[in-house]
Amino acid sequence: MINVINEKLKLLPENPGVYIMLDGYGNIIYVGKARVLKNRVRQYFHNSPKPEKVMKMVENISDFNYIITDSEIDALALENNLIKKYKPKYNILLKDDKTYPYIKVDMREKFPNFYITRKIAKDGCKYFGPFMGGINCRDILDIIQLTFSVRLCHTSTTGKKRECLNYHIGRCLAPCAGRTDEKEYGERVKKALSFLDGNYKDAEEILKVKMLAAAENESFELAIDYKNKLEMLSKLEAKRITTLSRYIDADIIAYATNNLYSAVNMLVTRKGIMQGGSSFALDEAHMSDGEALTSFITQYYLNHDVPSEIIVEEFCEKELIQSYFKEKFNKSVDVTIAKQGVKARMLKMAKKNAEEYLEKSVDKIKHKDDMTVNACKRLQELLSLKRYPRRMECYDISNISGVDKVGSMVVFVDGEADRSSYRRFRIKTVEGANDFASLQEVLTRRLDKLGTNEEEKFPKPDLIIIDGGKGQLSAVKEIFAEKKVSDIELVSLAKREEEVFTLYSDESIKIPHRDYSLKMLQRIRDEAHRFAITYFRNIHSKRNLQSVLSKIDGVGKVRRMALLNRFGTLNGIMNASVEELSCVEGISAALAEKIKNYLQENL
């Protein structure tokens, strides 16, 4: 293998591009970009001293491939796509990443509504946020509706409808009922947008008037509610950085490393107000600090709003990032190297947070390795598996007396849950409560995707785990034989004694209960069970919900589906207020009252 690598090194071009490192099993373990492929890839195999984390990766390289691109920017974009697709174990991978809520306003509508979303799209709408650091998005919307009487619901404004409770208590102008015109409602929307831009004065004055009026009328609970909202506005105002322009929308990003593990802290400012911050533990990688920070930034903003400015440290690849944003998002982003002034102080604050997070997280990360990657290696040894079980899939069946049968597939990669790859199955061909036949149907449908165009979405697993004992294993073994599958390992985990059954022996393997490899198997098995039972309950409750609602006069199929889409479950509808029920399209205040009364009397 060394000779193969040496020959391939001689043939490397001097073009920009992406290189892909492979282990002995053909798994992609690292993806990198290069301005000059020839120089960059050769560095790994020189005898020069390398950091411990680089040596760790190089020891596992058995082969490499590369893809030539037109420019380094194209290489950066391709690198990002490949990392997202393959999740190589030695790349920078974001951990503890969250999608924060935004408030969305569609100004293309005649009567815009305000609502919460976690997805940013180039759709011509206005987005405000992200809201983080203890600021509750729903509280913000509540203040907006209370002070400016704009609508928060999705009710259609075409055709005249009956006013809901919000109109009667002065929280909405009821454009859906024709109680306001476009000009009057537009003025309220302008004020609400100004509020979201950080101008709180009008809202404060309105809340103070309402608070005093409520106190004068001895509506003390209402007065306290207004007081609490005023206090929240004060907290929002306190987050404003007095020396920072109110027009600055910037993310401040700092990087810290101990040469084995890395962390990033991000502080977010919008309209000069500090929205909060987040820290991210980065999986070990061998990059330079500048490359690591660039990799983080390009991955993070695939799923988050791109600000007009990013404040970073001087080792960041500034020009490359700016060019990437221009080409990828068609947006000019000012990447600022902060060396003095308030921006430098904010960057120092972010750096301190990153260093503290790294220091406190190192032991947790080391422990995580024992629970994940090292547990996979241990499992390969204990079960005599032919290959390292990088991608593991676990299957479970859930039903009650053969009704609403479902199956689940959960995926772990390098010992960690990959929730984006989970899949659910409705059992279609099995009559009654036959778990063996249900498992066979699910595995047949899964294995049929191998070797097809869908294999990109459903990569071939290294190991399939079945929740059950010998019987379940034998049932799936029949499907493996029928499909002539020989390059995927198959085991089952029986819950009572936590015994592992394999295809290599009639005897079970008992792994010590304190062993991390057994704990990992238990995690994936329990996750498959949780995922299956959640899906089953969802289907079962929806069927029961349809049955219950069909008994209420005036609630036909369309209205049942509208209630189901809005509240999801019977408990959701039972816990909803009459006001919330009446916000559903097609449900009048009188019908909402009728639904509420029926459910209270009969359930």
3D architecture notes:
It is a single chain. The protein is globular and about 85 Å long. A hairpin with a 5-residue loop joins strand 1 and strand 2 (about 30-35). The chain has 20 helices and 19 strands. It has helices at about 1-10, 35-45, 50-60, 70-85, 135-150, 165-170, 180-195, 200-215, 220-240, 290-300, 320-330, 340-370, 375-380, 435-445, 470-485, 515-550, 555-565, 570-575, 580, 590-600, and strands at about 15-20, 30-35, 65-70, 100-105, 115, 125-130, 250-255, 260-270, 275-280, 310, 335, 390-400, 405-415, 415, 425, 465, 490-495, 500, 510. About 45% of the residues lie in helices and about 20% in strands. The chain is α+β, with helices and mostly antiparallel strands.
Question: Tags for this entry?
Answer:
603 residues, alpha+beta, eight-stranded mixed sheet, 20 helices, 44% helix
Task: Write a brief caption for the model.
The protein has helices at residues 2-10, 37-43, 52-58, 72-86, 137-148, 165-168, 182-196, 201-216, 220-238, 289-300, 318-329, 341-371, 373-382, 435-447, 470-483, 516-549, 557-567, 570-575, 578-582, 589-602, and strands at 17-22, 28-34, 63-68, 102-105, 114-117, 126-128, 250-257, 262-270, 273-282, 309-312, 334-337, 391-400, 403-413, 416-417, 423-426, 463-467, 489-494, 499-502, 509-510.
